[in-house]
Specification:
The complex is a heterodimer of chains A (333) and B (275). In chain A, 26% of the residues lie in helices and 33% in strands. Chain A is built from 9 helices and 19 strands. By secondary structure, chain A is an alpha+beta fold. In chain A, the strands form 4 sheets. In chain A, strands 6-7-8-3-9-10 form a 6-stranded mixed β-sheet, with helices on both faces. In chain A, strands 13-17-14-15-16 form a 5-stranded antiparallel β-sheet, with no helix packed on it. Chain A has 2 domains: 4-226, 3-Layer(aba) Sandwich (Rossmann fold); 237-332, OB fold (Dihydrolipoamide Acetyltransferase, E2P) (Beta Barrel), CATH 2.40.50. With 275 residues, chain B is mainly α. Chain B has a domain at 66-231: MetI-like (MetI-like fold, Orthogonal Bundle). Chain B has helices at 7-35, 39-42, 56-64, 67-98, 104-113, 123-132, 139-162, 167-175, 180-191, 193-209, 212-216, 225-230, 240-260, 262-269, and strands at 233-234, 237-238. Chain B has a two-stranded antiparallel ribbon. In chain B, a hairpin with a 2-residue loop joins β1 and β2. Classes of the chains: A alpha+beta (333), B mainly alpha (275). Chains A and B meet through β6 and α2 of A and α8 and α9 of B.
Chain lengths: 333, 275
């Protein structure tokens, strides 16, 4: 079991309010990703759940039990840090066994659990090495091994992949997702990378300036963003926003169109523009089109479209995929 | 790009380093040489450089005053005060390094400021306290006072080393179920071993050489080697050769310790300076 509930959690550092009022229900077994720009309070929220920071007010429950006043050692959670935070003076084996040692687990059980974890994470050959003798990916695996070995109520991941190179990041992303499918334990994962959020999460929490902007499945957030911030943050490349006359036509203060929902043509369309930068990704092509009086709009087209900078083009939004927002940025349905 | 150091510059700095080292070592060398001279040779003018290599001074010094008793007192006091200081300083430095408050820097400065006060300013009250509590001329009393006077330096040094340890690792230990003492014993202390070792060595040296309190608060029973040396500067006059023999005997153990642990000491003292 590992449900996590936040009830009106507030956190201030000195006089500065980082989390004004957060309430959230994370179901047992869910993979929940906290995503948001730097400094939005996502790591703070995770550290509050971990018990590494004290709440200023509010209640945190694990499986319905109030743990707000409990220290991190007594919450039964495991955490994987961005910096791996391995114990440099211990071998891989000792690192993985450390939580079991703290729990006074007997030697035979410890050995069996460490061996099991090492096998799952492909670390068997490295058990007697020190962390400094491992690569970044192996270190991250040791950190995960240390987390899984004592079967915690939930795993907390604080930007665990940001120190890895791009290729390794994709591999580890898949490994963590597979681990979740295998263990079926609640996982709370913090990242600023919305691609990581979209690909890994059962549910995403979008945070902005300490506030929870929206909580839902990746596709809910993509299809029905609650406001302009979520609409702009979820989806890559980010959504195009148009104001003024273009928006008024749709009875909104701002309208949003995702790059993949814009059709591009040389002959005719709704909006006129000139091609600026063209990014060829092979499978996709991103075109940055200058629209007079509106600014730069991004278009995503499938395949290898042959446009060159300077081409005059027409853009037409898919009318069923236009997002409308009011003055305050809230979505109009 | 770093500029290559020319051979001429290398020679110059090597020579300078040797001169400085010899200047610093000269008094020690002179003391050792004098200890092997007769009293007449010791006060000869112009001074004699090569002694007649007599061991009489050493025999006389040992005959007059039991060297080994003083040596043992010095060991008890310096090692004891250092271990007790570490016991208090590790948690204190841990708290200040990993959970600093806006006042942490002030507390550190305040602790250091106690070292700026001349010790003689509190000699009379300390003497009276020691006399009334029966601590005068006891190893325990000296251990306690040396713990107290060196504690600020021990805390400062450990604080500096601890600040180099990433707080994530201690937080990971907490998440792994380590309560406070386990976090200190299993994670912080093993990681800070080089820093703790050099703090320990430096503090033993400081305590071993401490002369003000050890001379003023002892008579004979608890007198360490510092008091042993000073007993050779008597009202009847200075006996340079014997005084030098006593000094050589007193500094020899700490010189050997310093020599054996120089790698550790240098590493500790430059810790954090080079990444």
């Amino acid at each position: 079991m590992g449900s996590i509930t936040l009830e009106h959690v507030n956190k201030s550092f000195g006089g500065h309010q980082v989390i004004p009022d957060a309430s959230l229900e994370i179901e047992d077994g869910a993979f929940v990703v906290f995503v948001g720009p730097s400094g939005c309070g996502k790591s703070t929220l995770l550290r509050l759940i971990a018990g590494l920071e004290d709440t200023t007010s509010g209640i945190i429950r694990l499986d319905g039990e109030d743990v707000t006043q409990r220290g991190p050692a007594h919450r039964g959670l495991a955490m994987v840090f961005q910096s791996y935070a391995l114990y440099p003076h211990m071998t891989v084996r000792q690192n993985i066994a450390f939580p079991l040692k703290m729990a006074n687990t007997d030697k035979a059980t410890t050995e069996r659990k460490v061996d099991d974890a090492a096998r799952v994470l492909n670390l068997t050959d490295y058990l007697d090495r020190k962390p400094r003798q491992l690569s970044g990916g192996q270190r991250q695996r040791v950190a995960i091994g240390r987390a899984i070995v004592r079967q915690p109520k939930a795993f907390l991941f604080d930007e665990p992949l940001s120190n890895l190179d791009a290729a390794l990041r994709v591999n580890m992303r898949i490994e963590i997702t597979e681990l979740h499918q295998h263990l079926k334990t609640t996982m709370v994962y913090v990242t600023h990378d919305q691609v990581e959020a979209m690909t890994m999460a059962d549910k995403i929490v979008v945070l902005n300036a300490g506030r929870i902007e929206q909580y839902g499945t990746p596709m809910e957030l993509y299809r029905t963003p609650a406001n302009k911030f979520v609409a702009g943050f979820i989806g890559s490349p980010r959504m195009n926003f148009l104001e003024g006359a273009h928006a008024e036509k749709y009875r909104a203060a701002t309208i949003g169109v995702r790059p993949e929902h814009l059709r591009i043509s040389r002959e005719s369309g709704d909006w006129h523009g000139r091609v600026g930068v063209v990014e060829h990704l092979g499978s996709d092509t991103f075109l940055h089109v200058h629209m007079e009086g509106v600014g730069l709009q991004t278009v995503r087209t499938e395949g290898e479209k042959e446009f060159v900078p300077g081409d005059t083009v027409w853009l037409s939004p898919d009318p069923s995929r236009i997002y409308r927002f009011d003055q305050s940025g809230l979505a109009l349905r | 790009m770093a500029r290559a150091v020319s051979t001429r510059r290398k020679i110059f700095f090597t020579a300078l380093a040797w001169i400085v080292a010899l200047l610093l070592f000269f008094p020690i060398l002179w003391t050792i040489l004098t200890s092997f001279k007769t009293e007449q040779e010791a006060i000869a003018s112009p001074p004699m450089i090569i002694p007649s290599w007599t061991l009489d001074n050493y025999f006389e010094v040992q005959a007059r005053s039991d060297y080994f008793r003083h040596f043992l007192n010095s060991v008890w006091i310096s090692v004891g005060s250092t271990l007790i200081a570490l016991l208090f300083a590790i948690p204190a430095a841990w708290a200040m390094a990993f959970t600093p408050t806006p006042k942490t820097k002030d507390v550190l400065m305040w602790m250091l400021s106690t070292k700026m006060m001349p010790a003689v300013g509190v000699l009379v009250p300390m003497y009276l306290i020691f006399r009334d509590t029966g601590l005068l001329d006891t190893v325990w009393g000296l251990t306690m006072i040396l713990t107290l006077i060196n504690l600020p330096i021990v805390i400062w040094m450990l604080y500096t080393y601890f600040r180099e340890i990433p707080v994530d690792i201690l937080e990971a230990a907490r998440m792994d179920g380590a309560i406070l003492w386990k976090e200190l014993v299993y994670v912080l202390v093993p990681m800070a071993v080089p820093g703790i070792a050099s703090t320990l060595l430096l503090n033993i040296i400081l305590a071993w050489n401490e002369a003000f309190w050890t001379i003023n608060l002892t008579a004979s029973k608890a007198a360490p080697l510092t008091a042993f040396i000073s007993s050779f500067s008597s009202p009847q006059g200075l006996f340079w050769a014997k005084l030098s023999a006593a000094s050589t005997l007193a500094i020899a153990p700490i010189l050997v310790l310093g020599w054996l642990s120089q790698k550790q000491l240098v590493r500790g003292l430059t810790f954090g300076a080079v990444k």
